[in-house]
Amino acid sequence: GPSSADATVAAAAGAATCSGTPSAPAVSPALQRLLLAPELVELGVTAADLPPGLAGLSPALVARVIRKQRAAEQRALPEVRRAEENERRRVALPQLFDAVVGVLLAHRRSTMYVAELASKVAENHRLNMSREDVVAGISAIAERAPEFCTLRQLTAGALFKRRPAGDAAAARRRLADSVRL
After folding, report:
1. pTM
2. How many domains is the chain partitioned into structurally?
3. Which secondary-structure segment (H or E) carries 150?
4. Structural contact between residues 134 and 176, judged by C-beta atoms closer than 8 angstroms
5. Are residues 93 and 66 in the same domain?
6. Are the CB atoms for 136 and 115 separated by under 8 Å?
7. How far is Cα 90 from Cα 178, in angstroms, rounded to an integer?
8. Domain that holds residue 9
9. Is 37 exposed, middle or buried (CB count within 10 Å of its CB: 0-12, 13-18, 19+)?
10. How far is residue 121's CA from residue 140's CA, in Å, rounded to a whole number?
C-alpha cells in the first residue's frame, strides 16, 4: 500500500478529488518536498495555495509569505477593519482632547456646537482623523469625562459644553489611562 508520506503528498498536492479524477496538474518533486516541509504542513498549505515558481525557495520564506497573505486577507474583513478603526480612534482620544480644549481656549468659549467644534479642530490641528472621526471622538470625550463636559442635543445640533469646574488635567489623565488599558 501507499506510505503515509505518499498520502500526505497526494493530499497536500490536491492530486485527486473524491471521484478519482485529477483536479490539478502533476506536482513536481521539488514542489512535493516544499509542501512536505514542516513549516508549510503546519499552515495546511496545498499546491493550490502556492503561486507558480516557488519550488526553489526555502520553506521558511514560503511560509512567511503565506502568513503575510493570510494576515492581509484577515485584515481585509469588515469586522476586523471596524475593530482596528475603533482602536485607532480610542488611542487618538488624548490628542483630540487637547485639540478640543485648545479650540475652546483660543475662541474664549465654553460652549460650541459639535459641528463647528469638529470643523475648527480639523482645520487647526494636525490630527490624522476624518471629520466624522472627530465628531465621534468628541462624543466619546463627553461620555468618558462627564465631570469636564457634556453634550446636549438641541434642534440646531449637538452642543458641546465645558463644565465651569471641569478639571481638564484630570479628565485628560483619565482618557490617557483608558488608552493604556
Report:
1. 0.55
2. 2
3. strand 149-154
4. no
5. no
6. no
7. 8
8. 4-75
9. middle
10. 15
Cell 487647526 sits on residue: 124
CA distances from 31 to 37, 58, 76 (A): 10, 11, 29
In whole angstroms, what is the distance from residue 160 CA to residue 163 CA? 10
Alpha carbon distances (Å) from 48 to 11, 38, 41: 11, 18, 14
CATH of the domain at 86: 1.10.10.1420
pLDDT tens digits, the chain, 181 residues: what are they?
Answer: 555 544 444 444 444 344 444 555 567 777 787 888 888 888 888 877 777 777 678 888 888 888 888 888 887 788 877 887 777 777 788 999 999 999 999 999 999 999 999 999 988 888 888 888 899 899 999 998 898 999 999 999 999 999 887 788 888 888 888 776 5
